[in-house]
Amino acid sequence: MSLFRRPDQIQPPPSSLTLRWLTVGVLLTQALHAFHLPMSLATVGPILALLSYAMHRRGWRLPSLVLVLIAATVAFAVRKELGYLIGRDPGVAFLALAAGIKLMEVRTRRDVSFLLCLIAFLLPTVFFYGHAIATTLAVIGVAVVLLGALVATRDDEAPTPWRAALRLAGTLALHGLPVALALFVLFPRLSGPLWTLTSERVGRTGLSERMDPGMVSKLSLSDDIAFRVDFEGEVPAARDLYWRGPVLTQFDGRGWSTSLAPGEGHVLVEQGRSISYRVSLEPHDRFWLFALDLAASVPPEARLTREQQLFSLQPVSQALQYRQTSILSDRYPARHADELRQALSLPYSGNRRAREWAAALRQESTNPGDLVDRVLGTFRREAFYYTLEPPEYAQDGIDAFLFDQRRGFCEHYAGAFAFLMRAAGIPARVVTGYQGGEMSPVGGYMIVRQADAHAWVEVWIDNLWRRIDPTGAVAPERIERGLGAALPAGERVPFLSRLDDSVIKTLRLHWDAVNYRWQRWVVEFNKERQQHMWKSLGMPRPQPWQIVAVMLAVAGIWLALLAAWMFRHRQRDPAQSDWDKFCRRLARAGLPRAEHEAPLAYVRRAARRWPKAREALLAVAQSYCQARYGPIPARAGLKALHDAMNTFARVPIR
Fold first, then answer.
1. Catalytic hit among 240, 293, 396, 410
2. Residues 296 and 313 placed together within one structural domain of the fold
3. Is 454 an annotated catalytic residue?
4. Which of 110, 133, 335, 337 has its CA 20 to 30 A from that of 502?
5. Of the listed 33, 56, 284, 454, which one is catalytic?
6. pLDDT digits 0-9 by tens, 251-283
7. Is 469 annotated as catalytic?
8. DSSP, res 11
9. Structural domain of residue 567, as residue ranges?
10. Catalytic residue among 293, 469, 512, 578
11. Which among 500, 386, 352, 506 is positioned nearest to 443, based on CA atoms?
């Protein structure tokens, strides 16, 4: 009947050392996921893990029903925080918290193995949310700790000390690193990620398909990177750095939004200054790409709308790199007649004073260009203020902005200007994107941050869409020198947008250069780049057997080198090494040891030759025998042998 006993009756419970390793593994894994979890869930996970460890220390056991209720409560909390339960993000969040619950019911070796496997499964899910080098190093570090846990907990009766376990785990990881690198470079890459899950988060920082008053100003408080740019040749002047994003044509009385108008765009072919560059775009979970005005090429898997906006065919949920060519121009012709009709649409009522002023300007102006100059002149002459802290504009916000408060950010000036143009019968629309950028002092590339978010206007003048930036009339420093130079003294400025070069800012720029190189050479090592590598090696289209042969050759060479190194540096018994050193000294003095001679017999023969060294000689031999064969602890025996050797080294023998 013993065959039918429960596993926890057969196996002893895990030791306290095993429980400590498991708790540390769970806490480290939860810490990795804390950066993308809501604060409440990120706090609950460690509490569950620490509570589980405390329960084990006190010998408390919860009934299975209670554990099920705790798991159900956690699932309900995930559903409440994220809004849904079935999906990637809630699944990862639930598993991260469930690891703490599983720790509560660890009773057998099977439970230990299951929990370690759960932690190992959770580690790669961190890459759903970022691929920075710091994230990779953190995951590798936790993986080494997990491997150390496997080493330390393999035998509860003779546990491995934590330092030795981590040392062995680190050594194994270093031994496997070259093979992992070879597989990363040589194994056939897929055209997309192995998982096809798209991002489900809605809170990522970035431009939206809608612009409400205050939206861009809030975005400009962020130092997060939107994209990086490598220019092929001379870098354009700051006044030409308009990175085109969503084009907003619909106005509902408060904010502006995009309209999915049918019709494909046409690549600009007119004469102008052409510039080529490579964009490394950070994920923003939407479809738009960014290019300097105006796009002269379309990246693969993208299209150009009739508003000259680049659209990806898939949401940009992972870092994306593409090459782009642009014509530096602030005007282009319209291709569709209904573009102008859309660019004149306004609500039937609202903002009465702005409508009346627009009608008066139209009467006074000789042409659309003259009307534009009159409005810009008003912005320059009168007391309008550029600020990141504008007041709240509610009903008839454009009237309140133009005639009462006169304080706003770029979206206020662009939205009010486009409204005035439309009210005066001139087609106009708002363009959002980024303006400017900062050249990295170490990487030679440009960094465009969320703080560079901007809004400007396109106006139909002389049968062309022309870029008009009303912000430049109020705060020209914003266009020429960036956000930090345009804001009034005392206002809150994003740290990396400040004009002063602090040590922390310099260090962050250097770290960004490291991250960028990691992004380019590791994260963005895709199928096309691998094919280019094979082509440079003389194999444009390698056959499967050739790829396997190269991988086996690389792995074989590394294993051979590793075996040779281990054979040369094989670990010897420390006591035997000291004894061999002792014997060599006596041999140089004219008394070599015979192969059959025991340590004590050899020392007695040496004592007869050097009577004055008798005590030192006997101390070495006795210490060696105790360290090598005696019952005393190894560390104490080795110390006694080292002390005896040091004493003998000061004894003259000839």
1. 410
2. yes
3. yes
4. 133
5. 454
6. 988 889 988 666 677 777 666 678 999 999 988
7. yes
8. S
9. 528-533+544-571
10. 469
11. 506
